[in-house]
Amino acid sequence: MSEPLATLGSLRAALDSGAVSSADLVEACVTRARASQESLHAFAGLRAEGARADAQAADARRARGELRSPLDGLPVAIKDNMVQAGELTTCASRILEGFVSPYTATAVARLEQAGAIAIGRTNMDEFAMGSSTEHSVYGPARNPWDRERTPGGSSGGSAAAVAAGVVPGALGSDTGGSIRQPASLSGVVGLKPTYGRVSRWGLVAFASSLDQVGVLAHTAADCAWLLEAIAGHDSRDSTSLPEPVPRYSEALGGDVSGLVLGLPREYFVEEGGDPEVLSAVREAVSELERAGAKVREVSLPHTRYAVATYYLIATAEASSNLARYDGVRYGHRAAGVRNLADMYQRTRSEGFGNEVKRRIILGTYVLSAGYYDAYYRKAQQVRTLLRRDFEEAFRDCDAIATPTSPETAFRIASKTDDPLTMYLSDIYTVSANLAGIPGVSIPCGFAKGLPVGLQLLGRALDEATLLRIADAFQRRTDHHRQRPPEAP
Amino acid sequence: MPRIARADVERVASLARLSVSDEEADRLAAELDSLLEYVETLRQVDTDGIEPTSHVIPMATPMRHDRSVPGLDPELALANAPERHGSAFVVPKVIEGEDEG
Amino acid sequence: MSEARPDTEVVIGLEVHTHLRTESKLFSPAPVTYGESPNHSVDLICLALPGVLPVLNERAVEFAIRAALATHCKVHARSVFARKNYFYPDLPKGYQISQYEEPIATGGWIEIEVEDGAGGSATRRIGLTRIHMEEDAGKSIHDSEVTGRDSTYVDLNRSGVPLLEIVSEPDLRSAAEAGAYLRALRSILRYIDVSDADMEKGHFRCDANVSLRPRGQTRLGTRTELKNLNSFRFVEEALEAEILRQAAILDEGGTIQQATLAYDADSRRIRVLRLKENADDYRYFPDPDLVPLVLPEDQIERVRSQLPELADRRSERFRSQYGLSAYDAHLLTASRPLADFFEVAASAHGQPKPVANWLLRDVLQALREQDREIEDAAITPQALAALIRLVEAGRTTAASARQLIPELVERGGDPEAMVRERGLEAVSDAGVLEQAVDEVLNAHAEHCERYRAGEKKVLNFLMGQVMRSTGGKANAAVVRELLTRKLDE
């Protein structure tokens, strides 16, 4: 706990002052990544050589006074489901073993153009399907706060890497909470933007209408810089929004007086999880009230249908998105196959883990003849009702505050036997994906020594309000500055 | 009465080109059954006249101009191919009578 | 001629897939090419790499609207792209992006000319159920000679090429009608420049659904599907063969099994590819990577206003405006370039009928022999008009002029100069001709007798002889006048 928290902001200041160079920063990150890999398994792979070369170029630019952006020369990590030219992208799956992408995802390319340096690719649940980063061909990632516990998922590797101070910032993806929930369980800030705000070109698809690329860091300020770099229209993504990107950094340093926080009564039920989590979240809301925010109860009446709706839509879309993994053009192909049918079945059965198979089968069932109307179409209708719930609620408030997760970090292997239990831990996060609205999780306290996250949900395209509230909260509290115990 | 039996799992697994052992099929049937029981709570929701969500944020249809860009260098296109012959991908033969769309 | 019993009605519906003449693919900017080496026209999207996304080609949409309007369909302001999910090596995503519940167009029709059984022809209107947009799959090469016994090669050049699927109502009642429908459809697609619709090149593929039922019954019989029909002739032959096959089964009291069939042109036999016990489960759902296709009304109207005059309307106009027969009008308007050529030539010449005759008879023959289309021919409408005028003025004979047509078609040229340079000027000098006429009359005294006895048509033979002796250059009018005068003396 001796070092001050290394954030993108503080490291930039160090670079500006000349105290360190990008090369120094990258070297330190790579060293820490290697040192912690055994105990944390946060990374799927490192690109030390590439990062060193990038750092040299960044230092040269700095010397010439040609900085590309506030992120120039700063190290970050990328989740292993975003392609990068020349790098292995496996989505923590055996079916993509050996796959080297010939192209780079837009979000990653924009970070590169901003001068940020990707030092490696982080561990995740296979194809982003999971809430614990246990379903990974690389083995489970571990929570820096308690290595017997998961960091959450599916962006658990990114969350752990940031939480452990290996990198100051990382990209993740969020389909049903996969950035926010690990951020909450690992004690960092995790932001999922409005659907369509960040391009999905190069993000390996899980559920196309729900997936979004997002950011993880220690502070709202860092998230603002990262988001500003990656957000914006991309003509290669037909679901990308044309609206211009505001300067999110201008939301920082603001106050919350007069802002109305809505507390949905359906999210604050006593039966819903760990009571210490609820009380930490309530205390955080009180802190915001002390800072001048107003609090009002709102209702999101269809909340109890959200997880079911999510799983029907997500698995259906996933079952189709994963059909391309067939051993024909890239990735794993089973050996010694008799014929085409044999190749398909063995390749896919060998290549996919159990959680992925389970979801493909459920999703295929949901879409199959005779069930489409009752399941998939019905779910899309309920989704419309969930969206309307939020539209209604946002008439009475500027942002909605909830716990991010009903619980703190759970023990590794404690949930893998019962998928339903695992799925229900997404209960507070899935609605935002279904409605397409932005959400952020910020560290707001501890329960039995484990991090608790406060979730803020905003109107579509109103990331600025969320960042403003989060930033104001962080200026008044120091939960985000707590450091996990060092690795043994 | 279980909603999903082993035969359902096998049929669906076949559609998805996944092979499942008998034990796996039984386990999956039980898991899917409890999941489906859960999702059937959606029946309670009155969705009469409600449009399914097609896209969360409405927008005009994005299109591109009909201009072509030269194809990838075939070496790059085939760089990850498990098996190739010249510039073609190679797969095992289809059995006569195998399904095609 | 189908031998189904007269109390049996044949019901045929056709599904046509036609390539659209865009430069790039439906959802990716990869080029649309033909005959390229495998995988030389593919990009990241065609390869279905992880993370890629589709973006719609606006010209493909425009072409779809054109085709829908040209076939009198309702163009829907909102249509939805859906995924059709199945596994095949030449379908890289494991799904095809198509349209399912909400296609771009429905409810049109095409008119065809059919023989009415009494030696004449009648017009029948064939309904279109729908037109929708979809992407083509790549090619699987199964030929063991090429691939070896155990392998299939996969070429994704064609993967993603834009297609229109055009589905007819089951309104066709014979193999001949099916052929007429396909020709009419192809003509329309070419007229509006959305497709080359060339069956041999695989741009225009047809699947046929066939069933029989007792005449008067409205319920459809069990149908079979014929696939991979790649020429108009094979379509008609295959349909004939399948009608006979079904009729034979029903005659023996059997039932038709739903099946997918192929036609073997060499043996002229129907082959079962696959029995359809269960309908394929494609698990269609709206593609979440695309938003619904919304077409503003003014866009549809703009396309409508820019449609060229279509063949049937133009044919009617040719009849009324130029006084041409229905048959000639129909032939001249079969292709837009031919119809355009005719109108310019007729205007240059002044008289439509002679132009029509020369065009349909001599120019078309030369085109056929040179395996050329009019738009690739060197002959200009002005040149044809000039050539006809030379004949009418007696400057050259019709026979001589006919000789020049193949060269004009192949290389072009100025007819007047060509006549002069090759010495094809008609001989009109009465003195010269009189000598030739006298020689012929002397050599064919018996014919002269027959003419004088009343057999007037012998004149043609005598004329032919004079033309032959003058190498075809005699001015026919002068020759005729000389012959008749001398014979009547």
Textual characterization of the structure:
By secondary structure, chain A is of the alpha/beta class. Chain A has 15 helices and eleven strands. Chain A has helices at residues 8-17, 22-40, 48-64, 106-113, 156-163, 180-186, 220-230, 275-290, 306-321, 340-351, 354-367, 373-393, 419-424, 430-435, 463-476, and strands spanning 43-46, 75-79, 117-122, 169-174, 189-192, 212-217, 260-264, 294-298, 399-403, 439-447, 450-458. Chain A is globular and about 65 Å long. In chain A, 66% of the residues are buried. Chain B has 101 residues and is α+β, with helices and mostly antiparallel strands. Chain B is 32% helix and 9% strand. Chain B has helices at residues 6-15, 22-39, 74-77; strands at 63-64, 84-85, 88-92. In chain B, helix 1 (6-15) crosses helix 2. Chain B is flat, with a radius of gyration of 23 Å. The two termini of chain B are 34 Å apart. Mean pLDDT of chain B is 86; it is low at 97-101. Chain C folds into three domains: 8-299, no CATH class; 309-421, no CATH class; 430-488, Orthogonal Bundle (Arc Repressor Mutant, subunit A), CATH 1.10.10. Chain C is 40% helix and 21% strand. The two termini of chain C are 58 Å apart. In chain C, 45% of the residues are buried.
The H-and-E topology of chain B, N to C, reads as HHEHEE
Q: Which stretches of chain B are low in confidence, meaning pLDDT under 50 for 5 or more residues running? A: 97-101
CATH architecture of the domain at 6-44 in chain B: Orthogonal Bundle
Q: What would the average pLDDT of chain C be, to the nearest integer?
A: 91
By DSSP (H or I, 4+ residues per run), the number of helices of chain C equals 16
Number of beta strands of chain C = 17
